[in-house]
Structures are given as structure tokens and as C-alpha cells.
Amino acid sequence: DTAVSQTPKYLVTQMGNDKSIKCEQNLGHDTMYWYKQDSKKFLKIMFSYNNKELIINETVPNRFSPKSPDKAHLNLHINSLELGDSAVYFCASSPFSWTVSGNTIYFGEGSWLTVV
Amino acid sequence: QKEVEQNSGPLSVPEGAIASLNCTYSDRGSQSFFWYRQYSGKSPELIMSIYSNGDKEDGRFTAQLNKASQYVSLLIRDSQPSDSATYLCAVIAGYQKVTFGTGTKLQVIP
Q1: What is the spatial distance between Cα A25 and Cα A13, in angstroms, rounded to a whole number?
Q2: Does A110 contact chain B (CB < 8 Å)?
Q3: Residue of A32, A40, A88, A99 for testing the chain B interface, max B β-carbons within 10 Å
Q4: pLDDT band at A40 (very low <50, low <70, confident <90, very high)
Q5: Looking at the predicted structure, is the pLDDT value of residue A80 above 70?
Q6: Are A105 and A3 contacting, i.e. CB atoms less than 8 angstroms apart?
Q7: Minimal Cα distance from A58: which residue of B?
């Protein structure tokens, strides 16, 4: 079973459309994340949720809205898509205290979003 | 100044040589440091984590941390073509916030 799964893997859409990316983890982790990786491979955090509560919200346009119905799911909805939104979006999860306990952050396989 | 800096490369080394990857960070309060490997078209995967000054070895990989110099490195001994990938340095500087560098592309030449 895939530990962190996200769908769809590929998404091509037109400017102005609204789209969603879904993410689910079966690791029992408390914390989930959305990262954006641009064409230069820069991986930047967008949001982090701990047990359904938002704990990190970086400077992201409010066209991006995360939703966590439960601690195993973190979805990303994007309104009014723009060309600059084209990137790979990675969902990830980790135990809450992973930085101290020596655990790691587990990434999903990524969702390739192309806005045309 | 970027929070976590890496040379983008590509760094080319012959097969069997030692590859040395470097990373500097700006926040002196950073406590945890990680190296991830990312193959093209794939997600990042953890290679090494290091929390205290000095060296940490795991197989062919050695992570080195110098907090005074705000510097962390990854050495790959006996480099193999399968090591060709982008290596991302990651730093924990605040509450649950992981900051990644831009990555160094490594090419191991057979």
C-alpha cells in the first residue's frame, strides 16, 4: 500500500479553472503538508496541518485553500488557476514530533499541474 | 540571503570517486538537518539526518555538521551511477517548519 497517495498525478487545465488535488496517508501521522516544487526544483512549504488544524500557512495566494476533513486527509483546492501555478505539488506527512524523534517526512508521488 | 543555500551544480564525479555536497543555512537556531535524494520525476526520499556537530556515517554516506560555521555536508563514497540525482538539504529552524535548499544535481559518470 502506498503510504502517502495523492490524486491526480497529472493535471492539465486552462487558466481560470478551479481544480482540486486530494491526499491521503495511511501511516497514522498527525501532521500533513503541501509543498510546491517549481521548475527550478525549489521545494517550498505551503501549508501544514496537525490533526486537522492549520499550523503553518506560508505566503500563498488565497486562491489556494487547503481542507483537512480528518487527520488522514489533506486536500488542496485552487481557484482561478494562473500560468504561474504550474508546478509539482507534493503532499507529505510526518509524526508530530518527527524533528526530535528522528522520524522523517514522507512525501507522496507528486501531482504535476500544468496550466495552459 | 536565502535561508538554505546549495550549489545547483551539476556536480560531475567519476564512478568510484567521492562526491561532496555542501549546504549552508542562515538561521543559527536551526536544530535538525536532513539530506534528501530526489530522482527525476520522483518524490524526495530521506538519505541522512543529523542533529549534533560532527560526522554521522551510514553505509557509503557521511553527513557532517558544523553549527558554528552554519554548514552541513554530505559525502558519498564509491559513487555509483545510481547515485545520480538531485540532493536536497533540509533544515528545521522553527516549529515544524522544514526549509529546503534548491538542491544540487549530482551526475556520476561511468
Answers
A1: 26
A2: yes
A3: A99
A4: confident
A5: yes
A6: no
A7: B97
Which of A40, A43, A48 is nearest residue B88 as measured by Cβ atoms? A43
User: What is the reported pLDDT for A98?
Assistant: 56
Mean pLDDT, residues B44-49 taken together:
92
Count of residues making up chain B: 110
Q: Does B34 touch chain A (CB under 8 A)?
A: yes
Q: Which are the contacts of B1, defined by CB distance < 8 A and separation ≥ 6?
A: B26
* Chain segment B12-46, per-residue pLDDT in tens: 999 999 999 999 999 888 888 999 999 999 999 99
Note whether A43 contacts B96, CB cutoff 8 Å. no
Distances (CA, A) of A3 to A19, A77, B68, B84: 23, 22, 37, 25
